[in-house]
Amino acid sequence: MIRALHDVPEGFSIRADVCVIGSGSGGGVAAGLLAEGGREVVLLEEGPHVPGSAMTQREDQMYPLLYRDG
């Protein structure tokens, strides 16, 4: 499930064994391995969800979209 902060209803809560902050620098791999090991995992991201359909092969378009400092 992917939720943006503005879409989270008031009073929403979630329980997990592990919260991984960021999917970069190995966070996604760590989250995947923990989930495969049976843990309930939440991945917390700073930026918006960017669907695959929005991806291009152009660095000048993707860097500002995917990275905090472009």
Could you give a quick summary of the protein structure above?
This protein is of the alpha+beta class and 70 residues long. 26% of the residues lie in helices and 11% in strands.
What structural class do the secondary elements suggest?
alpha+beta
Tell me the radius of gyration.
Answer: 14 Å
The helix count comes to 2
Q: Give the rounded overall mean pLDDT.
A: 91
Q: How many angstroms does the end-to-end distance come to?
A: 26 Å
* Beta-strand content bin: 5-15%
Overall form: globular
Describe the structure.
This protein is of the alpha+beta class and 70 residues long. It is built from two helices and two strands, in the order βαβα. It has a two-stranded parallel sheet. The model has no long low-confidence stretch (mean pLDDT 91).
Summary tags:
70 residues, alpha+beta, two-stranded parallel sheet, 2 helices, globular
What are the SSEs and their pairings?
Blueprint: E1 18-21, H1 27-36, E2 41-44, H2 59-66
Parallel strand pairs: 1-2
